[in-house]
Design brief:
disordered C terminus, alpha/beta
Length: 413
Amino acid sequence: MSMTIDSKNDFFSDAFRIPENFDPKKIPTRDWIIDGFLLRNYLSIILGAGGVGKSTYALSVAVALAAGTPLLELSVNKKHNVLVINNEDDKTELERRVASICIHYDINHDNIRGNIELLSGYKNEFKMAKSDCNNKTKISEHARSLIEKIKRDKIDVVVIDPFISTHECNENDNTTMNEVASIYKKVCSEANVSILLIHHVRKDNSSQRSSIIRVEDARGAKSVTDAARIVWGMSKILPKEAEGLKNPPEDVSNLVRLIPDLKTNYSPQNNIDHSILRLVSVSLENSQEKPDFLGVPELHRKIKGYKISEKFTPAKLVAALEKINSKTSLEPSCRFRDILSDLEHITNLGKTTISDTVALLPRDRSNALIIETNERHTAAAYYATKQHPDKSRSPWLIHREILKSSQTNQLTS
């Protein structure tokens, strides 16, 4: 399958050289609409299983942008124009969803009316890409119209939900999906807009042992997530995981994990923690007898370390590190990846399970020696040098931190 591309007389006419008197300080900064999440001119993705709350969260982001309000602790400080394209809900259901968000967060509808526009593709689906009779992937007329609308109405962000419904191509073919993703990037580039795409994980990804998801769990070919610069994840927190939370609510069925660092190309060092969202039931009060209730996400708390696997808890990590240290003293310069094989051998667990446990440990920089992280995980394990009532040993203090080398030197000196 091949894609039809508009030809140019000279493809390399836009090639450039670094100019004379080049001054890096004059290069424009990246145009973040939401720090670490939505970047103008690029594609972002929310990834998760069906029914986890991706659509509701995306609509909450849209309302926050339209109102210029930092809902859910998002870095929104001014109003933006937003277009929401939803192929799953009809017009009335979209109205219900937006109304429930406004009711819960006490946002006047008139405050967002001029900045948010919604399009339902429930009856007539929006298509970004088409496949012709020769199985060639082509940009659709919908996509061309979208570019014109974005430019005309000065739209900053487009939310498209879900990705699978916006094309007619083989989702498991990497070449084909790369062509579809190229159309998304074309819209972002030509219209100077940020697109937030809602994407699903594979159905066979659900597990009763851990709710951690990864970019590799995305449905279909990986070309889609490869094309995105930022990928955030959402997943239901399992009851066994919730046991590790401090003062968990009685009903944990509505707790959702927000993972803001599945993929963070171009992302600034904003030290975003994984968060726990709670889907709160909100009444529209549109009937005295049987009003509609809808779930609205609110920030429950930042994750401060809880067990994500029965097999490998923070306590077991401590025991494993003690064994390693008894054989070879851990130095401050020791990197986490350097001891990963030892941890595998001691625990009989895989690298992924071990790394995920470390990645969700709480932060604490006081009086600690560092085992540095690898490039993939924003996590590090520490052991404490603080005095302990039992003088014969030093207690382990396990937590995590994103640190630069200069901070490392200060901490261990």
